[in-house]
Amino acid sequence: MSKLKTDHVFTSESVSEGHPDKVCDQISDAILDACLAVDEKSRVACETLVTTNLVVNAGEITCAGWDGIDPEAVARRVVRDIGYDREELLFCADTFEHICRIHQQSPDIAQGVNEGTGLYAEQGAGDQGMMFGYATTDTPELMPAPIIFSHQLLDELQRIRKAGEIPYLRPDSKAQVSVLHMEGKPKRITSVVIAHQTDDIPLEQISKDLIQVARNVLGPTGLLDDDTQYFINPTGAFVIGGPHGDSGVTGRKIIVDTYGGVGSHGGGAFSGKDPSKVDRSAAYYARYVAKNIVAAGVAEKCEIQVAYAIGVARPLSINVDTFGTGNVEDAALQRLLEGGELFDFRPAPIIESLCLRQPEGWSYQGTAAYGHFGREGFPWEKTDRADDIRAALGV
Questions:
Q1: Which residues pair with 182 in a beta bridge?
Q2: Which of 59, 76, 129, 142 is the most buried (most CB within 10 A)?
Q3: Are 125 and 119 in contact, with CB atoms under 8 Å apart?
Q4: Residue 356 belongs to what H/E stretch?
Q5: Which DSSP helix (H) or strand (E) runs through 170?
Q6: Is the dihedral of CA 293, 298, 302, 307 positive or negative?
Q7: For 195, what's the count of Cα atoms within 13 Å in the CB-facing half-sphere?
Q8: Listed range (104-113, 151-160, 311-320) with the worst mean pLDDT
Q9: Cα separation of 238 and 201, whole Å?
Q10: What is the pLDDT of residue 128?
Q11: Three-state helix/strand/coil letters over 258-287
């Protein structure tokens, strides 16, 4: 039985790369990228806080090349690339104060995660907890429609802003899309909300321009109609924004980062964490497996839960739910995953199979805005095991 009603409106939001929390996610992940570039075995748990002209980095990092990494320089590059390059925004790449309080990873954690140490002879999970992966046939990306539409809308708005096509746009923005589902499938977009930081100009001009962008982005879905409602900067003005308007912290947009509230979430954030942390790597792998199951035609929707104990390699449990859309029993899929021959949920094989310590053609910073899932170029988005799944199940 589906967890969602057959006919319902579901809403998801996304936030731009200039949103204060996303500024933090990108700085944390840029520092992770810098560490992995000099030491692929780096252990990184990097947090960032931003507020009015201030960036604070804290956390635990063990990296053989740490002495050659300048977190302040990394932070200034990220902030500048986002577009905070004017002092009038009261958060500026050239002038913000930087505070760094980073120390080494706790040896108590390290002994359970390092291969060949601790109670087990193989690399254990970097923490306890449960992670989820999800996929659905609702969109070509095999993602829920409301969240992927919200991401696509903001991605286009940031392109337009950086290209200067709408010169009054500032970096901070949010988008929200509501989609009517009938018989479990997206049928129409009922409303679109955009809150975008701008220069001080008339709301009428902002509304006209951003509604046109929304129609350009979402029109090809075929889900807009004359009754779709648009809400642009509903408070009337959004001039004060970014870290000056609202402080930001790493890991505070976990629903934006995943499936927009569709399915379940284990509570762990992604950004600033190296792949020994199963909060990140196992969530990526669960998405990879769920996406391949859906791509194989075995189910229209699939959610996978996996749970770990810190320092223990093998998951404590794997659960599969196809919400009644599968053409094989969920128990058969669960047995397939628990067997470990097709998909291995131990941390070391996850890291190796997805090349998480040696990103090629992608970066962790690149995951930190506009969603970790549903975007091409990331290894967990491949559907290269769909044929293997069909063969293993005999379908």
A1: 185
A2: 142
A3: no
A4: none
A5: strand 169-182
A6: negative
A7: 17
A8: 104-113
A9: 10
A10: 83
A11: CCCCCCCCCCCCCCCECCCCHHHHHHHHHH
Within 10 Å of residue 348's Cβ, how many Cβ atoms? Answer: 16
- Is 169:198 a contact under the CB 8 Å cutoff? yes
Lookup: tokens for 360 = 């090629």
Residue 352, phi then psi, degrees to nearest 5:
-70, -45
**Tokens 């290894």, located at residue:** 379
Torsion 385-389-391-392 (CA) sign? positive
165, 136, 353, 383: which is closest to 260 by C-alpha? Answer: 136
- Least Cα distance to 326 among 182, 136, 133 occurs for 136
CB 291, CB 259: distance < 8 Å? no
Q: What's the pLDDT tens digit per position in 257-309?
A: 999 999 999 999 999 999 999 999 999 999 999 999 999 999 999 999 999 99
Please give the residue that has the higher pLDDT: either 184 or 222: 222
Digit-coded pLDDT (tens) for 58-71: 999 999 999 999 99
Q: Tell me the Ramachandran region of residue 101: left when phi exceeds 0, alpha when psi lies from -120 to 50, beta otherwise.
A: beta
Phi, psi of 50 (to 5 degrees): -130, 145
The answer to whether residues 232 and 211 touch, using CB atoms and an 8 Å cutoff, is yes
With a cut of 80, say whether residue 125 has pLDDT above it.
no
Per-residue pLDDT for 118 more than 90?
A: no
Nearest to 160 by CA among 92, 89, 212: 212
pLDDT at 120 over 80: no
> Look-up: residue for tokens 């990494």?
69
Going from the C-alpha of 224 to that of each of 179, 211, 212, the distances in angstroms are 10, 12, 12
User: For the whole model, what pTM was predicted?
Assistant: 0.94
Q: Residues 11, 178: contact at Cβ < 8 Å?
A: yes
The Cβ-side half-sphere exposure at 176, using a 13 Å CA radius, reads 14
Q: In angstroms, rounded to a whole number, what is the distance separating the alpha carbons of residues 94 and 214?
A: 33
The mean pLDDT value for 231-248 works out to 96
| Residue corresponding to tokens 């701008």 | 198
What's CA 278's distance to the chain center, in Å?
15
**pLDDT value at residue 17:** 98
Question: Which structure tokens are listed for 21?
Answer: 């929390």
The confidence band for 119, taking pLDDT boundaries of 50, 70 and 90, is: very low
Instruction: Report DSSP letters for 199-233, one per residue.
Output: -S--HHHHHHHHHHHHHHHHGGGT---TT-EEEES
